[in-house]
Predict the structure.
Amino acid sequence: MNQSYKAYTAALVANLIFGSSYAAVKFITPGYIHPFALNFVRVAVTLSLFWILFLFKPGKVKFDRKDLPRFLICALTGIVINQLFFIKGVSLTTVIHSSLLSLGSPIFITIIAAWLLKEGFTILKAIGLACGVGGASILILMKDQSGTASNMVLGDILVLINAISYAFYLVLVRPLMAKYSGIQVLRWIFTLGAIGILPVGLPYMLSTSWESFDFTHWVVLGYVAIFSTFVAYLLTVQSIQLIGSSATGAFIYTQPVFAAIFAMIFTGEYFTFYKLVAAILIFTGVYLVNAKKLTKPV
């Protein structure tokens, strides 16, 4: 298998894992474990695995203290806010809603890049933004009858904040990715992010009724902690190194598809007409704001 096929396979598998993680999270939280306790487990396991990996692959570039403020901001936006709001949001809303709203990240990335990096903002991008906002508004305002959401509006808003925070992270992390290896960046970001996540999640983890877990719950917890974070992030980094960030980022379109399939099979959700309209608007918005980028390798 040549390098391109390896990269495409890595990107596709990473997004399959990301897409399936919505249903996995929904399966165990909040019924069996509090969302913040799940955050604790997820970050603690991933952090441990990254530092174990450090023993085998320490990195060639030494950590520069001048980059610490940027690492801290990336840890706040990419780990603390992203992880806490994502898990909590998914626990309150539906899998399909949360996966479609998360797809708004590329739209927010374009807006934030235009603001912080002074990248051009065209009429086409403005139309794309309007489509994305329209699709997100439909999801937030319309009621879902699947019965899997306890507070859909709040959950949708939290997932949307997560998407905005993650967009900030992806813009701010670019200089670090250019200077260090992807694994080095993720290791330090998770290390700094753990400072914010672990104290918040520890009380909830200690109060979790672990005796109520059966074999299936432990398997799902392990999947969320190891595969949907550590493995998926490594596969994404590998893909970016081989085919670039734009080509890798295009695979995000597959996430809602995978999420919807797993949601309909395992959580009893179903795809309605208003979800289709919202999905079309969001997909159109993502395409329009990235139309020129998709033709340029990065």
